[in-house]
Structures are given as structure tokens and as C-alpha cells.
């Protein structure tokens, strides 16, 4: 089943859900009912213009029927299969499932997401219990007061010849420590109450929460795009603020208007743009990726290869969990700081797409000459132009859900069926 | 060091009421207890006093119990002195860290008076109740 076939299935599903007759929708989109019937049964491709009209007639966005959403859904289904391989889910048929049973597929994908979120919440709560300084301090205070009470009470009970002076002294100590116990217990109860309120805010990793928030803004870091509420957790809010602040600095270095004009003139070459504005390459990459309606994806990683930032590009799946495909030009750039890496890449079938990836790595020496070097590598993901011919690097999202069978870079088996792609 | 006939115990504990109780219990058992509350002063106090035993709290101002323990073990003058660690932290990793650093015994709070007395006697070679007459 091709990705375009999924559009017909989804269209039919949405029309039926809205309770609109086929003939009425066809009339609303100015096409014949028979043509709509063929589209809905996946026997005709639909042009972007017609899809736009059909979506409008349904009160929806064409994006909801586009290739990207089914592709994302299929990726989620494969990820779900990967998390529980012993269940024997036919991961290679994920696309088929998404096309035939989109509701069930979304349910599975959502349950997969919920499951991951709950796991993260458990890990966060576990980490909090083990390392939270307030809890540790409250328990320490309680145990210290209890120790003093126990030791003092034992002396009072077991020492028959205790002088009145010592008795008075130890009674005073008991009085003092009982007050500490009350205060310690209240502190602990207050902490537990507060934790309950915050449980939901630790449900998602801050990076995931931030990225969901940024996606809701359309990844626009322009001023005024503050309709989406701020992320719930303080950590994700910090990430969001840092992102907006950095975008503000990037805009100041490469002002709106002048930047778009330079982009039109020189194309999306971050090195050229950086040179023109006296800025740095990573800043120019961010500027390109965060322009309103930019189709460019952007990923950042540190020297360990851990992804620090993920803005997806339509058709280029980014791993939600775990490490990325080692063939990404991002990692070639990471190994060669200061040297631009440009590569034509192809994502796996089905739904194979070609992209131009531009990678660049910058280094810092925050600890001085004698300290360790820190690296940040970035990869801009641009939809390839049809003129970008030639051999492309056959990469994937991450090994676990990559269908490419003969891959020398593979680090673990795929849960998908083998495919010679 | 710490293995002779000394009856001196160095108690490093910042909780005054716990310290008072321990000083009382050990004094009645015939021990000469010196109490200090500041962790940073502990290594020098141990060198000066030549105690038979150090009772060391885990969380202290100035210098943590673990840091003091490492300093004691690194100094030839105090390297062999038995150290009884007291802590409100009963986590296995804290116990392991203390044992790696050279703690002789590890007691978690709240402890019993009889328990701490038994540990002190055991660590000092089964010291007798020299002060029974004082009770």
C-alpha cells in the first residue's frame, strides 16, 4: 500500500465520521462523486489542489491527510512493535494496519506514547525519591530528631540513678526534639502534597514536552506566536525560554527582511549566510529552520551523539527514543568540527524521500585551553530538489525500526521484515 | 594508634541532643568522650587526641563524614583508628561508599543506646565497663 493510498482511506474515514454524504462532499470540493469514490477507495491519486478543497469542505487541514501524518503514524506503530518484540506484532505490516484500521492504529500509537510517558514519569518519580534534596533533607531531619528522642527516652527509662539535673536536661531535650518531629512531619507532608500536584508535570521528559510545545507553535520562534500555553513543567519552560531567547539573538544577528533576501539570493547555505551576517553557521541553520512555515528540519547533538533538539522535516522520521541512524550526516559533521558536510540522503521505502542534509559542528572550550572540548553538531534537513540527482546515502531513523536489510552500519537487528532497499 | 589502652572516644556529631545522649551513655561506661560538631575540625582533633575510636556522623557542616573518613585513612597517624559511622541515610549506596572509604562499622539512625555501646566495645577490643561504679 502506497502512502497516497492512505489518503483515500483517511478521507473516507473523516467523511463518515463527519456524517457527510459522498455526493455532498464531492459537490463541496467541486469534483465528481465518481472521482471522489475512486479516491476514497484508493484507486486514484489525489492532487494537492483537490485535497486542499476536500479538506476545506470537511473543515480540516490538508496536512491531516498528507503523507507526513500516516508516515508518522506508521513510525509510531513500528516503535510500539519495537518496545514489545515478544508480542510478535507484524511490524512490517504497520502501514497496512494504519491504512485499513486508522482508528486502531492511532489508538496503538497513542497507547505507545502514553506508555512511554508513564515510564518516564515512574523514572522521574524514582529519581526524585532517590535524589530530591528537599525529601532527603526532610527525612534526615525526621530521623535525626527520632534518634535524639529514642536515645534520650532510653536514658530516662533505663538509668535509675539519674540526678534531677540530668532528668530536667533530658526532659528539655525531649520537648525540643518532639517539636522538631512535628515540624519535620509537616515539612514531609507538605512535600508529598506538592509532589502529587506535580506528578503530571514530570510525566514527559522535558525535551519531549518542549518539542510538543514548539510543534504546537509550528516551530515558529517569531515574536508574537505565544498562543500555545507554556509547557507545564519548569524544566520544559526553561528549554522553551532558552529556545526563544536564542532565536531572538539569532534574529538580531540576521535581521528579518535582510535575512530572507539573502536566503533568496544565496539559497539555504548556512555558511554563506553566516559569513554575510558575520554570524556563525549553527545560528544560520537555526535561522533557516525557525522561519515561519519553514520546511527545514533541524537536529542537534552533543559529543556523545545524544540528540539535544529535534525539529522534524516532513517524511524524515526522527527517533523519539534511543539513538539515531549512524549514517546521518550529523555524525560525520560531529567527527569533523568546523568542516561543512553536505549529503544527499534517501529515507527508506515505503514513502522513500530524498533530502539534502547540511551538517556542521562547532566546538567550545568553556574550561579553557587545558579543559575538555565540548562539541555541538547540527544537521539541517532540507527536502531535496528534483535536480539534486546522484547517489544518495540510504539512511533510516534508527536501526530498531529501519527496514534496510543489508546495512553495514546496523548496530542492532530491526524488528521489521527484511527489505533489500 | 587507637589500639592501646586509650579510653578516649572522639564523637563528631552536629546534632546537640544526640551528641549529649551519646556522651552521657559512653561516659557512664567509662569512656572519655570529646565531642566536636564541626566536620572541618575533625581530622586535626583526631590527630591530637589519639582516640581509641571515632564515632562519625555522615552529614556534617564544614566537611562531610565521608570526607573526614577519607582524610583519617590517608593520614598515617589516624589510618588505623576504628571508625563507627552514624547516619540517617540507610541507603545501600551510602553504606557501600562508607565501607569503601574505610568505615569499620556503619549504624543507621535511630539507633539504640545498647546497640551503640555494644559497637563501641566491639570495635575497641571488647572494652570492659570500667566505670560501673559511677552508675
Automatic annotation (TrEMBL), chain A:
Keyword set, alphabetical order: DNA-binding, Transcription, Transcription regulation
Pfam family, one: HTH_3
MF terms (GO), sorted A to Z: DNA binding; DNA-binding transcription factor activity
Any one cellular-component term (Gene Ontology): cytosol
Lineage: Bacteria, Pseudomonadati, Pseudomonadota, Alphaproteobacteria, Rhodobacterales
Domain of life: Bacteria
Residue ranges of every copy of the HTH cro/C1-type domain listed in the record: 11-65
Keyword set includes Transcription regulation: yes
UniProt protein name: Helix-turn-helix protein
Keyword field contains Transcription: yes
Automatic annotation (TrEMBL), chain B:
Signal peptide: none
Protein name: Putative transcriptional regulatory protein TcrX
Gene Ontology biological-process annotations: phosphorelay signal transduction system
Keyword Lipid biosynthesis in record: no
Keywords of this entry: Phosphoprotein
Domain of life according to the entry: Bacteria
UniProt domain Response regulatory: residue ranges: 8-124
Gene name as annotated: tcrX
InterPro entries cross-referenced by the UniProt entry: Bact_response_regulator, CheY-like_superfamily, Sig_transdc_resp-reg_receiver
PTM annotation (4-aspartylphosphate): residues: 57
Amino acid at each position: 500500500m502506497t502512502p497516497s493510498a492512505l489518503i483515500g482511506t483517511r478521507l473516507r474515514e473523516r467523511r463518515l465520521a463527519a456524517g457527510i454524504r459522498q455526493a455532498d462532499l464531492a459537490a463541496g470540493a467541486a469534483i465528481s462523486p465518481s472521482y471522489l469514490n475512486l479516491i476514497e477507495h484508493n484507486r486514484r491519486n489525489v492532487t494537492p489542489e483537490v485535497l486542499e478543497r476536500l479538506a476545506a469542505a470537511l473543515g480540516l487541514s490538508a496536512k491531516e491527510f498528507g503523507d507526513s501524518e500516516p508516515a508518522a503514524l506508521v513510525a509510531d506503530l513500528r516503535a510500539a512493535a519495537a518496545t514489545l518484540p515478544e508480542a510478535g506484532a507484524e511490524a512490517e505490516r504497520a502501514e497496512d494496519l494504519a491504512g485499513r484500521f486508522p482508528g486502531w492504529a492511532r489508538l496503538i500509537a497513542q497507547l505507545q506514547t502514553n506508555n512511554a510517558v508513564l515510564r518516564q514519569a515512574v523514572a522521574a518519580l524514582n529519581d526524585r525519591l532517590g535524589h530530591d534534596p528537599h525529601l532527603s533533607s526532610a527525612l534526615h531531619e525526621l530521623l535525626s530528631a527520632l534518634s535524639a528522642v529514642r536515645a534520650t527516652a532510653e536514658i530516662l527509662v533505663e538509668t535509675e540513678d539519674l540526678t534531677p539535673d540530668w532528668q530536667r536536661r533530658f526532659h528539655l531535650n525531649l520537648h525540643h526534639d518532639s517539636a522538631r518531629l512535628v515540624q519535620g512531619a509537616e515539612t514531609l507532608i507538605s512535600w508529598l502534597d506538592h509532589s502529587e500536584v506535580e506528578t503530571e508535570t514530570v510525566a514527559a521528559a522535558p525535551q519531549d514536552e518542549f518539542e510538543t510545545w514548539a510543534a504546537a507553535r509550528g516551530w515558529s520562534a517569531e515574536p508574537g506566536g505565544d498562543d500555545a500555553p507554556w509547557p507545564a513543567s519548569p524544566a520544559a519552560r526553561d528549554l522553551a525560554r532558552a529556545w526563544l531567547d536564542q532565536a531572538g539573538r539569532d534574529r538580531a544577528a540576521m535581521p528579518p527582511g535582510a535575512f530572507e533576501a539573502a536566503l533568496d539570493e544565496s539559497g539555504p547555505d548556512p555558511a554563506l549566510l553566516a559569513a554575510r551576517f558575520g554570524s556563525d553557521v549553527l545560528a544560520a541553520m537555526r535561522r533557516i529552520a525557525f522561519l515561519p512555515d519553514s520546511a527545514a528540519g533541524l537536529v542537534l547533538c552533543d559529543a556523545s551523539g545524544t540528540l539535544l533538539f529535534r525539529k522534524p522535516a516532513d517524511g524524515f522520521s526522527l527517533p523519539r527514543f534511543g539513538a539515531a541512524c549512524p549514517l546521518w550526516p550529523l555524525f560525520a559533521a560531529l567527527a569533523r568540527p568546523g568542516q561543512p558536510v553536505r549529503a544527499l540522503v534517501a529515507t527508506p521505502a515505503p514513502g522513500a524521500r530524498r533530502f539534502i542534509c547540511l551538517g556542521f559542528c562547532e566546538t567550545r572550550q568553556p574550561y579553557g585551553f587545558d579543559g575538555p572540548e565540548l562539541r555541538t553538531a547540527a544537521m539541517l534537513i532540507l527536502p531535496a530538489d528534483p535536480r539534486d540527482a546522484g547517489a544518495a546515502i540510504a539512511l533510516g531513523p534508527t536501526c530498531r525500526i529501519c527496514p534496510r536489510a543489508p546495512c553495514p552500519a546496523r548496530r542492532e537487528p530491526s524488528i521489521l521484515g527484511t527489505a533489500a532497499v | 594508634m587507637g589500639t592501646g589502652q586509650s579510653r578516649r572516644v572522639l564523637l563528631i556529631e552536629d546534632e546537640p541532643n544526640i551528641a549529649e545522649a551519646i556522651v552521657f551513655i559512653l561516659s557512664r561506661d567509662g569512656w572519655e568522650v570529646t565531642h566536636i560538631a564541626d566536620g572541618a575540625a575533625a581530622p586535626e582533633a583526631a590527630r591530637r587526641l589519639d582516640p581509641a575510636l571515632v564515632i562519625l556522623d555522615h552529614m556534617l557542616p564544614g566537611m562531610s563524614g565521608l570526607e573526614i573518613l577519607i582524610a583519617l585513612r590517608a593520614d598515617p597517624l589516624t589510618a588505623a583508628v576504628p571508625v563507627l559511622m552514624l547516619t540517617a541515610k540507610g541507603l545501600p549506596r551510602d553504606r557501600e561508599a562508607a565501607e569503601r572509604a574505610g568505615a569499620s562499622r556503619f549504624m543507621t539512625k535511630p539507633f539504640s543506646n545498647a546497640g551503640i555501646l555494644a559497637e563501641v566495645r566491639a570495635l575497641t577490643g571488647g572494652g570492659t565497663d570500667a566505670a560501673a561504679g559511677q552508675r
